[in-house]
Amino acid sequence: MTLSLHAAQSIIAGALDAARQRAAKPLAVVVLDAGGHPVAFAREDGASLFRFDIARAKAMGAIGMGDSTRVLAERAKGNPIFFQSVTAVVGGDVAFSPGGVLVRHAGAIVGAIGISGDTGDCDEECALAGLAAAGFSTESEQ
Amino acid sequence: MTLSLHAAQSIIAGALDAARQRAAKPLAVVVLDAGGHPVAFAREDGASLFRFDIARAKAMGAIGMGDSTRVLAERAKGNPIFFQSVTAVVGGDVAFSPGGVLVRHAGAIVGAIGISGDTGDCDEECALAGLAAAGFSTESEQ
Amino acid sequence: MTLSLHAAQSIIAGALDAARQRAAKPLAVVVLDAGGHPVAFAREDGASLFRFDIARAKAMGAIGMGDSTRVLAERAKGNPIFFQSVTAVVGGDVAFSPGGVLVRHAGAIVGAIGISGDTGDCDEECALAGLAAAGFSTESEQ
Amino acid sequence: MTLSLHAAQSIIAGALDAARQRAAKPLAVVVLDAGGHPVAFAREDGASLFRFDIARAKAMGAIGMGDSTRVLAERAKGNPIFFQSVTAVVGGDVAFSPGGVLVRHAGAIVGAIGISGDTGDCDEECALAGLAAAGFSTESEQ
């Protein structure tokens, strides 16, 4: 399965709905395909300028390493030297904070969502809400 | 006036409507704010992977030089050495083909739209249609 | 369909067999997946050092633009300013010479092969021979 | 002695055999020559996208610093500031985790193997198994 633009836009709409219900700070939300290339993106009014790059780095990090950035951030705490070198190896294509979540379909990774703007925990909640709203499973991330 | 996410999404929706009416090849469409930062983005199913980067470079080039990429591409033909050096100077943040168009409001530049996927002429037509559909003037580009 | 390591290695073996039959200069051959990420690579003894980067840029250019580098090189002749800017936009991820060929399965692009070392024509012949040897269609490139 | 493509492919085949015997996670394996340039590469099905870059950075780091990445990672723990600066100095061409091992012949460094995908310890075991299978000594790494 290829992640369609329609599915990506549904994920983003669901994530932003969840953000407004929580009165989250303004967010940037990006959805990448399985190769790490952008499918859709939205930056809410008032979100600061780095949010696109950070959101993309979260999503790309999740795809590139095969885990959510929550898991990666935990692992990085125990091995900071290696994960700092990984950041340089991949040219900054990873950000170690929750909010980067894999999109799976029938067990396969079909893409990732990345959110930045509020706390990592809030960013991730909105990401998971977006996946659920668009009909994607979020169990494998737990 | 700051270009809102709502306005950016309306521009993209209008551009993609125009693309489907013309049976254009799959497009990537990006809208940047006045600082050149992404507000919204969509890549249609089947669009090749560089389309995001090229669309962004068209939009960024338009903002960066203060003219549509149609005008820039014409000027580049008459002075290729200078414009090649500009490409290097700005780290590839410009693509010399029609499809990058400034978004203006009350005379001020509030952002730009960039499209890639079909011919430059078709990309630009869809960009102008998106601006018109969202209620932005396109006269100043002519 | 995802391009497997087994398929990628079969393509490379077939391409190198063809190269030896033609007494081609030493080649570098890379196979990328649909997202442009390397699956397998081989550089023959005596191939010069840039061959990996050029082979990869041919394969990535084919995927990124959705056409073989033979077609892209022809188009670039008619619009050099634009294609020079594209080279910068994508950070050098394209090389305008034959030898980058899409790998298709059931109509979908599943990857690309890139070869560098001999003339562009010879590089492309070996690429097509590799695809044929591994059971992939090469018709859509003609 | 120059590391031949044949030798590099034997090392990779041996490493992947060892990986499958251990039921390791999907791996990426790269072999570089004495100048740090890729000779051969393979990414197993299911390995995540950064694995090529990380494997290459392990192998390049080993060649660049003249020690296995196990030794380098140990040294980095005791002097993190310096090794972080090295990471930046060499543009991300090093990853501080076991799995990057020098290939020696008659005492001379002729190349390096880098593996990423499982734990650093498992990656390194597979690298050493690949060297042994291809008839290279691994004693100097101990």
UniProtKB/TrEMBL annotation, chains A, B, C, D:
It comes from the Bacteria. It holds the Pfam family HbpS-like. This is Heme-binding protein.
